[in-house]
Design goal:
It comes from Ureibacillus yapensis. This is DUF393 domain-containing protein. It holds the Pfam family DCC1-like. With 129 residues, the chain is α+β, with helices and mostly antiparallel strands. The chain has one domain. 40% of the residues lie in helices and 14% in strands. The protein contains five helices and four strands. A four-stranded mixed beta sheet has the order 2-1-3-4, covered by helices on one side. Helix 1 links the parallel strand 1 and strand 2. The protein is globular, with a radius of gyration of 14 Å. It starts with a strand and ends with a helix. The relative contact order is 0.20. The model has no long low-confidence stretch (mean pLDDT 88).
Length: 129
């Protein structure tokens, strides 16, 4: 089985919220998670030659690395139910999609400034690498 890995900014409450969103909609437990700041995140960042100051969610599937909106919509394809529908936006050219992604990424620390990170239960904790 191929491993689907999502790298996220471990210092960002908005990103933690995104991880929780994915976990709730991934009943088949297809995804593993690692923060970009973790040893695993650093190793994968190096393996895929990611920029040192990456400001994007990263999705690794079948040894291919996706960034920004492309990562988000490839993840959507694997989520439960109607959450697959947004993957249709992959038909829009990446520069257009990424303009919106960059706007959200630029302001993400403000968007969930006061949110508290959920402590994962044992079952969810096993999905973090």
């Amino acid at each position: 089985m191929d491993m689907n890995i999502i790298l996220f900014d471990g210092d960002c409450n908005f990103c933690h919220g995104g991880v929780q969103f994915i976990i709730k909609r991934d009943s088949r437990k297809q995804f593993k998670f690692a923060s970009l700041q973790s040893e695993t995140g650093k190793m994968l960042s190096e393996k895929y030659s990611l920029p040192k100051n990456i400001d994007s969610m990263v999705y690794i599937e079948n040894n291919r690395c996706y960034l920004k909106s492309t990562a988000v919509f490839h993840i959507c394809r694997k989520l439960d139910g109607a959450w697959k529908i947004p993957s249709i936006f992959l038909l829009i050219p990446a520069p257009i999609r990424n303009a919106m992604y960059d706007l959200v990424a630029k302001n993400r620390h403000k968007l969930r400034k006061n949110a508290q990170c959920k402590i994962p239960n044992k079952e969810d904790l096993e999905r973090f690498i």
